[in-house]
Amino acid sequence: MRRPHIRSVAVAIAVTTAATGLAGTAFAGPSTGERSAVSAGTNASAVVDAARAAAFAHASATGVSKGDELHAQDVMTDPEGARHVRFVRTYNGLDVLGGDLVVHLDRGLAYTGVTRAADHAVQPATGKARLTADQAAAKAAQAAKGEAGGAQLVVDARGGSSALAYQVTVTDQDGTNTVVVDAVTGKVRSNTPDSDEFLSPKLLDNLRKHGETLDPATGSASEAPEAAGLLGSGASAVTPYPSAAKGTGKTLFVGSVGLTTTATSKGHYQLKDPSRYGTETRDAKGSQTEKFSAGAKFTNTTDVWGNGATSNRASAAADAQYGITKTLDFYKSTFGRKGIANNSKAAQGMVHWGSKVANAFWDPTCNCMLYGDGDGKTFKKPLVVLDVTGHELTHGVVDATAKLQPTFVDARGNQYGEPGALNESLADIFGSNVEFYANNKNDTPDYLIGEKLGLSQKFLRRLDHPSLDKLEGTIDYWSPDTYYTEVHAGSGVSSHAYYLLAEGSGKKTINGVAYDSPTYNRSTVKGIGRSKATAIFYRALTRYMVSTTDFHDARVATLKAAKDLYGANSTEYKTVDNAWAAVNVTAANTPAARH
């Protein structure tokens, strides 16, 4: 489940230049329009300055006004030369929740458009708080049932209006919540857990209600390790240390796999990959720490990790390290993305987290993956399955880009609303793609999510016909009621649109799995292929989505991405439109009032 962390605004500029399509993709020419005197080769600082100036010069479109300051989070350069600068906003020095926007420039740094989260002015009606910080902290502690930290004044521009508010982090034995309290009325505006759990409270309740246990089938640990993807070489007496080494992971779910590890000295190894920014998996040893440094390092004298069974603590670690590195490789090979946040930093994981924790999640506080061992009842093995890792790390990618947020959260922690559902959908889409990229014979690539979890329905969710998931009640098509749908159930709308874009409607068998994708309007959709569909959705996420993007916004975002990549008259562009229409998302039924 997506549990976003509403972070404080970071002022530092994080600059990235990322490829936007797959090999062989044809890109549209540069945008036309008035060009500035600045050359296309201008450095990132000048691009940010040009985008900021354009935002204020086009205030009627961008919504930027007096008192606003824009702080760049990301600078993206397309192969055709266009630039996109993602900003967060402060108003009179206060962080603005839901004030994010992306300013689009052509190769000459002329303004071409904006994608904005708040379509209203972010100025609150009053700038004076009636509650003190201590009073707000007390209300937050009561709401989240934990210990409150300091209360920070912010502007909450989410939900169609703006209000002066306090943001408070509340900690309990299960983690942290971000609570936003209205500074004038004292009303709790939002109360959101900060971690990203794969299994929602609603799903866990349904599993218990049906008496169902999750007992994933394991792979074979006796097979030869993969040779593909092994970087570095074995250590020798003359090898300088630390150095890359070729290890073997005997995993729970994907058999024996090759792992790049670190030789720390002759005959001594650590489960840390120097060829992938130092990506590492550690042992939480039953603690619930959110500090990766507190985890115990996995070390060994044989460079063989695990035995294919839970009797060896390193078996789950081998699965986790394999899944994390394959996810990194997928994003780098496919999009040129260097790490989860595209900053060439390590991805991290901790296994054996907590006591009897039946879940796995992306934790933005730790900036790492945390895996429980299962509770021994509902879930009997660590949740270190490949597509779970790909799903959860994609939440990290979304957290580093659009920061899609749920609209509201109930008392049990279940989340609702289309931006949160879109977040879950993107995690399923790219998690599925990680499987296709890894192409491991012990985890056959497919458009199913959680097919190895041992569920009676044989999968948790599926992209071709989402409503076949009865456990979560996933939906196939959009309706006005989707706003009130739990995010995993609502994710079916955009996941279905993606599948139709990639593979088309009707019956199809891929890697031995039979699919039969229906359409809302009984139309026939001919797919453009998974590679092109994935390129379009990734470009849409990184360029044209913001924290409040809903399904109709996502339609527009993917159309813009298809136009960029293939042209407005292309088959790809037309198929994007057809795929969304096939899940009942059209220009004609766009809600009048959003955000």
TrEMBL record:
GO terms for molecular function: metal ion binding; metalloendopeptidase activity. Residues 131-189 form the PepSY domain. It holds the Pfam family PepSY. InterPro entries: FTP_domain (IPR011096), PepSY (IPR025711), Peptidase_M4 (IPR023612), Peptidase_M4/M1_CTD_sf (IPR027268), Peptidase_M4_C_domain (IPR001570), Peptidase_M4_domain (IPR013856), Zinc_Metalloprotease_M4 (IPR050728). CDD domains: M4_TLP. Residues 68-107 form the FTP domain. Its EC number is 3.4.24.-. Its cofactor is Zn(2+). Residues 247-398 form the Peptidase M4 domain. Keywords: Cell projection, Cilium, Flagellum, Hydrolase, Metal-binding, Metalloprotease, Protease, Secreted, Signal, Zinc, Zymogen. GO terms for biological process: proteolysis. It is an enzyme of class 3 (hydrolase). Residues 417-585 form the Peptidase M4 C-terminal domain. Residues 270-285 have a biased composition (Basic and acidic residues). Residues 270-293 are annotated as: Disordered. The active site is at 392, 488 (proton donor). Its main location: secreted. SUPFAM superfamilies: Metalloproteases ('zincins'), catalytic domain. GO terms for cellular component: extracellular region. The keyword Secreted applies. PANTHER family: BACILLOLYSIN (PTHR33794:SF1). This is Neutral metalloproteinase. It comes from Streptomyces broussonetiae.
